[in-house]
Each structure stands twice: as C-alpha cells, then as structure tokens.
Amino acid sequence: MDGKDQASICWQLLLRIDSMVLTGMISSEEASKMRRLVMDHKVSIVDAFTDILQKKDAEVLAELRQFSYRSKKSGFHIVHICTEMAPIASFGAVASFVTGLSQALQRKGHLVEVILPKYGSMNLNEVQGLREIEVEYYSYFNGQLHGNKIWTGVVRGIGVTFIQPLYYSSFFNREKAHGYSDDFERFMYFSRASLDYIVKSGKKPDVLHIHNWQTALIGPLFWDIFVQQGLEGSRILFTCHDIYAQSLVQPEKIALCGLDPARLHRPDRLQDSSNTHLANTMKGGIVYSNKVVIMSSTHSKGRIIHSLSHGLETTLNMHKEKLLVAPYGFDSSAWDPQKDKILPENYSADDMKGKAVCKIALQKKLGLAENSSFITVGCFLSDLSDVDTENLREIVQNATKMGVQFIFMTTGEVTSRHKELESLQVKIEDENVRFINRYDETLSHLIFGGSDIILCYSLHDPILQVPMKAMRYGAAPIAITTNNNNGLRHFPDHDYETTKLAMFINSTFGYLSFSQALDEINNNPSEWNHKVLDAMTKDFSWDAECCDIHISAYTAINSL
User: Fold this and answer.
1) Where does the sequence pass through the membrane (predicted)?
2) What's the domain range around 16?
3) In a domain, 182, yes or no
C-alpha cells in the first residue's frame, strides 16, 4: 500500500469520526482522543481499517474502541449483562446506572459494552447504526439448543448487543419488560444466552458486570460451566440495586439453564435462609461473584448488612470482605447550572446572581408572586413516593402561612398515586402552591434552578437522582418523613465504611427537618448559604465516587 492509500484511509477514518460527533454517537471529547489515536498509530491503524468503506459508523466506532483498548493495554474491558439501559429500556434504577457508569468508564479509558434482551417494546430510535448480524447462534435451555438472533448498535457512545430468542420469541416480545409469572425463566434464558454469545464471539472481557437478581445466575453459570470455555481471565462483579427483590424459586428450575440443583441448593450457596425449600437467585449472585457492590446513596455497609438485608444478613456477613457500597451519580453534562441552556441565566457557586433570575422566571411562569427573597420549595413525586399526604398537607399549610411557595411536579405515568396528590391539591387550594401533574423535563430544570429547597421523598433516589441535582443547583435536599410533624428525621450513619456522598449529605442536610431548614434560612442565613455553596462545589456525578469505587472493584478482582 502506497502513501497515498494510507493517507486516504486515515482521512476516511477522521471523517467518520466527524460524522459520529455530528450524529451524536460520540462526544467531542472522545472524538478528540480518537483523532489523536489515528494520528499516533497511522501505520498499524491503516492495516486494521483497509475495508472501512464497507462498514457502518457503529462498526467503525466499535473497532476504534477495541484498537484504543489494545494500544493502551491499561484500561479494563467490561461487559455489562443487564436487562435495562437508558434511554432505550428504562424501567428502574439499573437503566440510568448502566448508561451513566459506562460513559464515565469510557471517558477514563476503559472499553465498555452492554448486552441486553431485544424487547419488542424497546425504543430503537435511540440506537445508532442498528443492524442484524447475519449469523444465528445457539444457547442451551431446557435440555436443548435454541437459536438466537444478534443485533448491534451504539447507544450514547456505548456499544450494545441485543439478543433476540427465536424459539422462545415470546419471552421478550411483550408489552412490558417484567412483571410476568415466567420472569425467572425469561431472564435465566437471557443470562445463559449472553454467556453463550460471549464465548461464540470470542470476547475475553476482564469483567462480566451483572445486575440484580435478573442476571445474578451468571455467577454460578460462569464458574460451573463457562470459565473453562476461554474465559479463564474474566471475573464477575455483581452490583445490587434492590436487595428486596430476590426471586425465590423451586430449586429444580435452575436446571433449565444447565446448572445442577443438587450441587447449588445448599446453605452456603443458593438455598434461601428462611425458605429452605427454595433457591434464592440473588444469593447466588452474591456467593458466586468476586466482588459485590451494593448501591446506596445514604447507608453504610454495616447498616445494609444488619438492618437492610431483607433476610440476606448471614450471606452478606459471610461475604463482607468482598462487599462494597457505592452511591449513584447523575449526568453532570446535562445538569449543570453553569452551562444549562434551559435556565434564563446561568450561575455557579462563585457567582449566584443568576439563581435569583431563575427564581423570578419560575415564579412568573407558574403565576406565583414574583420576589426573589421569597423561599421557594420544589418537590418531585413519583410512583415510588412513600409520603403521608396528610403530614405533607400540614407541612405545606404551616409554611404557606409564612409566605413559602411550593411547586409539586409528578413524574411517570398517571396513577392512583397521582389522583391522591390531586386530592391533596384540592385540600390545600393556596395561592402559594402549584401542582404540575405531568413530568416536564424543561420545567424541571427551572424548578431546580429557582428553588431554595427541594423536598425529597428520600435522600436515596436511584432513579431521578433528585438530591444530587438539587445540591448541584444550589437547592437544599430535605427529605419528607411520615412519622413527625416537622418533616425529615434522617439520622446520620457514623459507620466508617460509608460513602463520601452519604457522609456529606447526612451531615449537611440529612439531620434537618423541613421546619428546621426554614428556621436556619431565616435565622442563620450565612451558615445556610455556606452549606448550599459547599454542596454546589462537590462532584457527585457518575464520573466521581460511583465510577471510582467500581474501578477499584475491577482492579481488585483482576488481580485475583
């Protein structure tokens, strides 16, 4: 190949990178790194991309990332095997976590990909370069091999593989992603099919990252069946987002994916501690993983093991040396008052003048009295809200007598829960209160920007990340309680194995009830402002503590 041809291929690659930026497949920061990669490795990269014209952008992107990974040899190759991912399949806390953490990891030089079921209800418009792989592969289930189709694409800069069962086509071609009597069989099939695909494709990831009970059986599947099929260098990290949902099943059911119930149904393996005749799927994930990360933005390791384990205390205590606790993060590129294009005026901890402008704009938009000195309180209520509405009514009515303004916004679909809130709206009927009975993304930015306090149903909010966004926007997150007249009682947890976020939010805002927060604003404004400004400067994004803890877990298990 002469110099002209080499230059041509390099330029084709560089122009493809331009295209990826323009179509939103990658960020400008990643594009800059990729361009440097092309320029620094011209000879070897030309040899790897001689057939670039025949490939789609998604394929080229995946190969560039693989090349980057091989050239650095310092980052980890991580494969998430999960059942949801934002924004294409968002059903709970896992969705935003997988996308947010994966993007953060890639920004730090790691190669990350995701394997998902191909749901019939999936929003595929968000997938760049979606294509069906022209090869069928087989996976074991219920004593036979069954065919699957593979689809690939890129979601927010992350390579994604979708598995579509052929014989069991009804498993994921349904109106909802979960909530069916055969959920265990569906996700067990997906777990086994994911491992069969990884072996078939020749991938040798450093880490298989699994989530919740839905893919917890990958732990025993890996060690009992797959570790000897070319995955000897891989390790398992299990992230638990919901300890309460454990999936108890008849032991014989785990034989469907090729596991031996007699070998696994033991107290130190999958046998449930309380219901000894049943197998506990999540317990299997904890026992058979190299590291376990429990997601909690407010609780310590000790509190989780001894008070919030939902029957798994013995198992967690037995495996406590491999147990870590991590907080959730949020997308700091989309939620930053200094750069937020939705706000009428930007502001930062160094210059807060714009926040007063945002408050006036919020008051004007909602027809509230316009005065930047009025205390304004925002509140986002979802289907997960566990709020005593009578207590909330009393809080609001006591505060509005002092001129405090409230803006309530509901999130998600209209439910009976929202009807209860509509009833609350009728009971209050105050000129200082506004209800928005739908989720409006644009207005939510203005609520954060214009509020002094954000009332939270909990300081642990894995789905909307309201407390972290509130702190970033200079609004204090104060939790609502159901057992006292003042608002929150969220006692700090002094366990030494507590995340930085938990320590900060508990010690700064977690001990305050709503009435105490109002008293501090009115009677000790300098101390209050110091807290708010300090919170604004903290980085609780996906790139910070959440990412760091997971990288430390990957590092630890990779040396095993």
Assistant:
1) none
2) 1-71
3) yes
